[in-house]
Amino acid sequence: MAGLALDGVNPDVGLLYDINGLARSAPAWFDRVMEFVGEYGIMLALVIVALWCWWSVRRSGTPGDSVAAVAALVWAPLAAGIALLINVPIRGFVERPRPFLDHQGLEVLVAGKTDFSFVSDHSTMAMAIGVGVFVAHRRFGFAAIGLALAEGFCRVYMGVHYPTDVIGGFALGTAVVLLLAPLAQALLTPLVSAVSRSGAAGRLVRSRRAATPEQQHEFLDIPEPGVRPGRNDLAA
After folding, report:
1. pTM for the model
2. N or C: more exposed end of the chain, with fewer CB within 10 A?
3. What's the CA gap between 185 and 187, in Å, rounded?
């Protein structure tokens, strides 16, 4: 690997040069696209995925499923905000300069980054939202986590973070979501459940077009709990 030759004792720096080197050989228009995607585009896409997930869970499953999923979706951005707050003292303690300040020859796509590098705020926030969506709905969660991984790649490609800054952000975002999830769900689930029982606001949790449990049983041809199928049903 070319980057490892530049700094053979530090794979982190070597991988930084390898990934950022793609920007040097790419067309200028592609670098501009990556700059927008890495700064704003992927975060916007994560918001869209979360909203799409919310729209889906309102219209499917049982009312209890909808309440739990919406509570998890509410927790996702809250967890991202908490993770960013936790990152403030971490950055101040580690005090790691941006890679372009210590290493020459990097293609820096975003100017004006003067704060510390470890850990990456974008990666932290993206992974927190991704894991939060995964807790709510696995299919949408896989898409959101994929976007978070792409965000981390973009930060290194843009020359503003080391790979370990990104990995640290992924770990911080995931840890906050999962470790505080039991407490968050205990607090948010009753609140979301109360909203679901209110008038117009209840549609934020449960769509009027969603099938009731009785309709789901009828659609799936499943007998209601406590009701045994008759002999004619078995014969059929």
Report:
1. 0.82
2. C
3. 5
Whether residue 156 is predicted with pLDDT greater than 50 in this model: the reply is yes
Cis geometry, peptide bond prior to residue 119 (ω within 30 degrees of 0): yes
CB neighbour list of residue 203: distance below 8 Å, 6 or more residues apart: 58
pLDDT tens-digit readout, 88-112: 999 999 999 999 988 888 988 988 7
Q: Shortest CA distance to 161 belongs to which of 128, 92, 113, 126?
A: 113
Taking the CA atoms of 115, 120, 123 and 125 in sequence, report the sign of the dihedral they define: negative
210: CB partners within 8 A, 6+ apart = 58, 59, 60, 61, 63, 66
Q: Which tokens is 205 given?
A: 């949790």
Q: Within 10 A of 209 (CB to CB), how many other CB atoms are there?
A: 8
The token pair that represents 198 in the structure block: 């209110």
